[in-house]
From TrEMBL:
One of its GO terms (cellular component) is cytosol. This is 3-oxoacyl-[acyl-carrier-protein] synthase 2. It comes from Pseudocalidococcus azoricus BACA0444. Pfam families: ketoacyl-synt (PF00109), Ketoacyl-synt_C (PF02801). Its EC number is 2.3.1.179. Residues 6-414 form the Ketosynthase family 3 (KS3) domain. The active site is at C167. Keywords: Acyltransferase, Fatty acid biosynthesis, Fatty acid metabolism, Lipid biosynthesis, Lipid metabolism, Transferase.
Length: 417
């Protein structure tokens, strides 16, 4: 399918709740400044855990976006999703009313949903009995609630869904929303990812799988994608939401356009529950499909926001996938992992990282990969180490790969009418 067969789709609004800032401006300034958002865990007492560090959202007040009663009936991940969605709508200047509500949809992905509520209610069940469990437990924990509650809080009555594809969920949400607008099922979509999985069970489970960094005494340098001394990812939390609109509708209301979304590639490794396929075959196909969907060639790509988790397996495999998909051009393309600053937001990562790619296109500034002190010989591309770089960014890709073998690449282009 080519761009000529379908409607054009543009980005008109962005909202971000992250470990380095709770507004779009603070998040973007944090990225280009190379700000570290990782520190000791404070959301629970972590002394028994092998990993005691995370990228926590600081100073978030849900009552700035909803009343206290509503906030108490939401898991933290849903609070993040609603808050970032309201930010994005305000940024877009998009008002939802009776006329356009059926044409505004929502897809908000998540990896694990309301895990904190589930853990808390299990404790209630064990200590106080089943009759004391909250009647709100189920609607607070199920994964679709960030999307459902955002609809309730914004009035959007169009297509509504939730992607649950592990760490690819936020990117799948944006890509699926793109498709809905392309084919006329919606005029605008609120889309992205939300996650709040810094909980005792989550940290214990990821640590038992040996996925997390245990650099507890040096959290500022724990997330170090593409560095030979990386020892695992750092769990993060937050939400990234993008407003996508059909081009003519956006132009008709005089919307500011950040970028055009032009490509969406998705594949599955069909290989292993947690490990990527050898040589990055599945990830490479996702990149290739995105380029084909967008009608662009590898030499046109300016920047890749890498999945870049800081795990031994991901970073070398992703490097191989980029080389496989982009050929010799891979050595001429700027690549960075913003997880070096935010940690890994699981299902929320695709949302905030798409925003990083979009803002790179909009501002012609590429965020850095911090903590890249000793590059892994298997990771030999240009990862923009330490400091951001001013450079023209005409086309940016954003990669997201998830447990289960899910691979997604999104493509964004500088808007030209």
């Amino acid at each position: 399918m080519t761009q000529g067969d379908v409607k054009r789709v543009v980005v008109t609004g962005l909202g971000a709740i992250t470990p380095i800032g709770n507004t779009l401006t603070d998040y973007w300034q944090g990225l280009i400044a190379g700000r570290n958002g990782i520190g000791p865990i404070t959301l629970f007492e972590p002394s028994r855990h092998a990993c005691r560090i995370a990228g926590e959202v600081k100073g978030f007040d849900p009552e700035a976006f909803m009343d206290r009663k509503d906030a108490k009936r939401m898991d933290r991940f849903a609070q993040f999703g609603v808050a970032a969605s309201k930010q994005a709508l305000a940024d877009a200047g998009l008002i939802i009313d009776d006329q356009n509500a059926p044409q505004v949809g929502i897809i908000i992905g998540t990896g694990v949903g309301g895990l904190k509520v589930m853990e808390d209610q299990q404790e209630v069940y064990l200590t106080r009995g089943p009759d004391r469990c909250s009647p709100f437990m189920i609607p607070m924990m199920i994964a679709n609630m960030a999307a459902g509650l955002t609809a309730i809080h914004t009035g959007a009555k169009g297509p509504n869904s939730c992607s649950v594809t592990a760490c690819a969920a936020g990117s799948n949400a944006i890509g699926d929303a793109f498709r809905l607008i392309q084919h006329g099922y919606a005029q605008a979509m609120i889309c992205g990812g939300a996650e709040a999985a810094i909980t005792p069970l989550s940290v214990a489970g990821f640590a038992s799988a040996r996925a997390l960094s245990t650099r507890n005494d040096d959290p500022a340098h724990a997330s170090r994608p593409f560095d030979i001394n990386r020892d695992g990812f750092v769990l993060g939390e937050g939400a990234g939401i993008v407003i996508l609109e059909e081009l003519t509708a956006a132009q008709a209301r005089g919307a500011r356009i950040y970028a055009e979304i032009v490509g969406y590639g998705l594949t599955c490794d069909a290989y292993h529950m947690t490990a990527p396929s050898p040589g990055g075959e599945g990830a490479a196909r996702a990149i290739e499909f995105c380029l084909k969907d967008a009608g662009i060639t590898p030499d046109q790509v300016s920047y890749v926001n890498a999945h870049g988790t800081s795990t031994p397996a991901n970073d070398s495999t992703e490097t191989a996938a980029i080389k496989r998909a982009l050929g010799d051009n891979a050595y001429n393309i700027a690549i960075s992992s913003t997880k070096s600053m935010t940690g890994h937001l699981l299902g929320g990562s695709g949302g905030i990282e798409a925003i990083a790619a979009i803002m790179a296109v909009h501002h012609d500034i590429i965020p850095p990969t911090i903590n890249l002190e000793t590059p892994d010989p298997a990771c030999d591309l240009d990862y923009v180490p330490h400091t951001s770089r001013e450079s023209q960014v005409d086309i940016a890709l954003s990669n997201s790969f998830g447990f289960g073998g899910h691979n997604v690449t999104l493509g964004f282009r500088k808007f030209q009418s």
